[in-house]
Amino acid sequence: MGLPPYEPQQVPEGHYRFKVMTEPEKTKRTSSGGNDFVSIKFSFKLMDELGNIRYHKESLVPWNPCYRDLLLAFGAKPDKKGNVHLGDEAKVVGKEFDAEIIHEPDKDDPRKSWSRIANIKLDDDVPSPEEEPEEGEKVPF
To answer: In whole angstroms, what is the distance from residue 10 CA to residue 104 CA?
Structure first.
C-alpha cells in the first residue's frame, strides 16, 4: 500500500508578519513563447497576530505585481521607468514586512487552491511601473 500524494499544508488566510529565512533561489526559465525570464523562490517565516509561527515558500516572476511590491518592501528603489529587480548583490535574509495570505484557486483543478502573498504593506510614495517596455527595449533580469 502506497502513501497518498503529498499535499503541502496551506497557511490560513489572514494578516502576517513575514521574515525572509534564506537567500532567494533564482532559476532561469523559458516561457512557452521562447522568452527567457527568472523565477525567484522565497522562503518565509510567518507570525500571525497571536504569535503563531508558520512557514511559507512562494515563487514569483517579474511580471507578478506581488514581485514588485515585495522588492519595494525590501527597500529596493525603482528605476526611471518604475521597474524594480532583485540584483545579485541584494541581501534580503532577515528582512521583514507585513502582508496577507490569500487562497488562490488552482487554474487546472478547481478542488485545489494555493496560499499566496497579497497586499504587501508599502510606503505611499512609490511610483507605479510603466505598463509595457518600449519597442526594442530589453527588460533586464
So the answer is: 11
**For the chain, domain boundaries:** 14-118
How do residues 53-88 score in pLDDT, each as one tens digit?
999 999 998 888 888 888 888 878 888 888 787 776
Report field, pTM of the whole predicted structure over 0.70 = yes
Looking at residue 132, the DSSP 8-state letter turns out to be S
Q: Note the pLDDT of residue 132.
A: 47
CATH number for the domain formed by residue range(s) 14-118? 2.40.50
Instruction: State how far the Cα of 22 lies from the Cα of 93, in Å rounded to an integer.
Output: 5
Contact, 128 vs 82, CB < 8 A? yes
Whether 47 contacts 16, CB under 8 Å: yes
The per-residue b/e assignment along 4-24, b for 16 or more CB within 10 angstroms, e otherwise, is eeeeeeebeeeebbbbbeeeb
Contacts of 66 (CB under 8 A, 6+ apart): 60, 116, 117, 118, 120
